[in-house]
Amino acid sequence: MRLRVCHLYPDLMNLYGDRGNVITLTRRCLWRGIDLEVVPVGLGERVDFTRFDLLFMGGGQDKEQRLICDDFRQVKGTALAEAVEDGAAFLAICGAYQLLGRYYETGSGERLSGIGVLDVETRAGKKRMIGNVVVTSALDVGRTRTLVGFENHSGRTHLGPRVNALGNVCLGYGNNGEDGWEGAVYRNVVATYLHGSILPKNPWLADWLIAQALGRRYGEGTPLAPLDDTLERAAHDAAITHAESLARQDRTPRGRAVPGATRRVRT
Length: 267
Ligand code: GLN
Hints:
The protein has helices spanning 20-30, 62-85, 95-100, 203-218, 230-249, and strands spanning 2-8, 35-41, 54-57, 89-93, 103-105, 111-113, 120-137, 145-159, 167-171, 181-182, 184-186, 189-192. 29% of the residues lie in helices and 28% in strands. Helix 1 packs across helix 4 (203-218). The chain has one domain (2-248): Rossmann fold, CATH 3.40.50.880. By secondary structure, the protein is an alpha/beta fold. It has 5 helices and 12 strands. It has a 6-stranded mixed β-sheet with strand order 2-1-3-4-12-11. Strands 5, 6, 7, 8, 9 and 10 form a 6-stranded mixed β-sheet that branches. Glutamine (GLN) binds at residues 15, 59-62, 65, 94-95, 152-155.
């Protein structure tokens, strides 16, 4: 089997090792005998995104977001929206998450328009939200899973009625430090503030993305062989233990996580 991944703006949108997510997807496919082709797509390139099974875009500072936002909207926006509606899997981190929404308003009041694929809006607040994050997520239907990662953003994202949250914040700030939600999900798009990179130590999310990609290409229910995730699980657990121990020493906010209570789409 073969899958194609589009890595959007790999040179500009890559904070805190976000590129590690693409490496994780590649390795987990390779270990299962799935050939994963990664195609970098940068500024000025017009592409038919429906030809990809999976899309990835990492985070970026305001400066990089400013550099790409016109290209993202004008050159790629319509084709990306088509791919999303067609069921392509998409992982978007932080600055990419913000630009998949309607807009990101910077601290100086400048509005960077997004492509509006996600029903979310983001405005920068005065305080940056920095630290470790632990989230419970019901994305993987029938199971409550944990995600752990690192966040650093001034943007506060609020979800509209046409998206689900990725999960509930147990530790950290998440979307805005107020409503207890982290990330957004729409069709097979997963958008999150979690850097880290997120996939190496949360392998279930990598497999969820690969499963959606396989299902779209080869038919729903295409089996995904299990892997020995002993090391990945150890990394996951160690990151949570570390986050918990730091939280006992500092002021990391604690959420009121309700396992499984992921926001539902209201449309
Ligand atoms: N510039 C955005 C913010 O601070 C995104 C930062 C990021 O991708 N880590 O909110």
